[in-house]
Design a protein that fits this description.
By secondary structure, the chain is an alpha/beta fold. The chain has 4 domains: 116 residues, Response regulator (Rossmann fold, 3-Layer(aba) Sandwich), CATH 3.40.50.2300; 178 residues, Rossmann fold (3-Layer(aba) Sandwich); 68 residues, Orthogonal Bundle (Helicase, Ruva Protein, domain 3), CATH 1.10.8; 69 residues, Homeodomain-like (Arc Repressor Mutant, subunit A, Orthogonal Bundle), CATH 1.10.10. The chain has 21 helices and 16 strands. The strands form 5 sheets. The chain has a 5-stranded parallel sheet with strand order 2-1-3-6-7, with helices on both faces. α14 crosses α16 and α20 crosses α21. It is elongated. About 2% of the residues have low confidence.
Length: 448
């Protein structure tokens, strides 16, 4: 097996020697440069497996070297060494593609961990790439782009903020980033921040010592410790109380936590991914979310599009979901009529992929055992996202899902009133079957 080759770039001889000795003890061959010019020459001559660079160099800064590494035919992991507390520079480096960062004075345990994680990226990834294509379905340009971004983000340790509406699959994206990363063999811990009682949130995140508060009858590890070496996914991070946001910020910056009741901090090695369906920028402006924490978790922003913006993928998703549901029920996947597929592709899906799954699961329970028809889908009456815009929708009115439901309720109520509450006549006016109208009346609590 080939001995890994590492490039060390630092103008201080003592630092170069320290890094070289550490690498040698890890059976990695070090190669040193004292400035950017020398480093670029070495990059052209050798196939390195990783690079460690200081940010302040005699002929420029380490960001220039980060750019040079990213421009290579086969980019290698590059970790930057920054002055203590200079998080802004570290964040900028990671935005440019740096694998990770270290603060001076260099913590050797942290250094060894970063090196081990970086070297794992050179392992064959064919199996993982094949797997992601089957899990994150869609052949639209936007989904191809999302899969490419996931593969790229998996090669970094940078915090990623995954934005998107409810039901688009933010947790699935987070899992795929983890599964393709150097941390894939370690734990993936996901938590919905809005589901934790505020009085317990600090203990859940950082753990606690026995006796630290009433009810703490034993020591408990928190989420950061449970995710040690792996990935921690904080869903609905906008729901975190401000008091915990301060402590989360410190944990990210210092890579250390302090359990409740503990007198010393504990070093943690965790990749942080976060998500919410809310607008964090607006929450920052309103004072409900800390601006400094927003910048720390939003080093990389990955936006997941709503299903209505990739309607070309709906047929593929429908076939996959029906097959999965049928297999779970021990039956053969049903066929679905062209009219039903056409209705699905023109429906705005305010609940996104999660809503599509619910619609198809319900249709499987209602269909005749041969083919799923449009009537089996029981889609709301307003079937075009454009219709919502034309009728005056804007985000200030609440979610699109609630807005469409109100429109449907008004349309049904108007039809019933115009037909003197004759349901058969109202269904005919609305272009629905009687069964479909009856289902909608029950769903909207109008079945009086």
């Amino acid at each position: 097996m080939k001995t890994p080759l590492a490039l060390i770039v630092d103008d201080e001889p003592d630092i170069r020697d320290l890094l070289a000795i550490t690498l040698s003890r890890m059976d990695i061959t070090p190669c040193c440069a004292e400035n950017i010019s020398s480093a670029k020459d070495l990059l052209e001559k050798h196939a390195f497996d990783l690079c460690l660079t200081d940010m302040r160099l005699p002929d420029g800064d380490g960001l220039e070297l980060v750019d040079a590494v990213q421009a290579l035919t086969k980019p290698i992991p590059i970790a930057v060494i920054t002055a203590h507390g200079n998080m802004d520079t570290a964040i900028l480096a990671m935005k440019k593609g740096a694998f990770d960062f270290m603060s001076k004075p260099v913590d050797l345990a942290n250094l060894r961990q970063i090196i081990q994680d970086a070297l794992k990226l050179s392992l064959p990834n064919i199996q993982k790439e094949r797997r992601i294509r089957h899990l994150l379905l869609g052949e639209s340009d936007v989904m191809r782009d999302i899969r490419a971004k996931i593969a790229k983000l998996a090669r970094s340790q940078a915090p990623v903020y995954i934005s998107g509406e409810s039901g688009v699959g933010k947790e699935l994206v987070a899992r795929l980033i983890h599964q393709q990363s150097s941390r894939s063999e370690q734990a993936f811990i996901a938590i919905n921040c809005g589901a934790i009682p505020h009085e317990l949130v600090e203990s859940e995140f950082f753990g606690h010592k026995k006796g630290s508060f009433t009810g703490a009858v034993t020591d408990k590890k928190g989420l950061f410790q449970a995710a040690e070496g792996g990935t921690l996914f904080l869903d609905e991070i906008a729901d975190l109380p401000l008091s915990l946001q301060v402590k989360l910020l410190r944990a990210i910056q210092e890579k250390k936590i302090r359990p409740v009741g503990e007198s010393v901090e504990i070093a943690v090695n965790v990749r942080l991914l976060s998500a919410t369906h809310k607008n964090l920028e607006e929450l920052v402006k309103d004072g409900h979310f800390r601006q400094d924490l927003y910048y720390r978790i939003n080093v990389i922003d990955l936006s997941i599009p709503p299903l209505r913006e990739r309607s070309d993928d709906i047929v593929l998703l429908t076939e996959h979901i029906l097959l999965r549901l049928a297999e779970a029920n021990g039956t053969t996947a049903p066929t679905i009529t062209k009219d039903a597929l056409n209705a699905l592709t023109h429906y705005p899906f305010p609940g996104n992929v999660r809503e599509l799954e619910n619609i198809l699961e319900r249709a499987l329970a209602l269909y005749d055992g041969y083919s799923i028809t449009e009537d089996d889908l029981n889609l709301p009456l307003i079937t075009m996202a454009a219709n919502a815009t034309e009728t005056g929708y804007n985000p200030a009115m609440g979610s699109l899902e609630d807005y469409l439901e109100n429109l449907e309720r008004r349309a049904i109520t108007t039809a019933l009133e115009e037909n003197r509450w004759n349901k058969t006549a109202a269904a005919k006016q609305l272009g629905l079957t009687f069964r479909s109208l009856r289902y909608r009346l029950k769903k909207l609590n109008l079945d009086l």
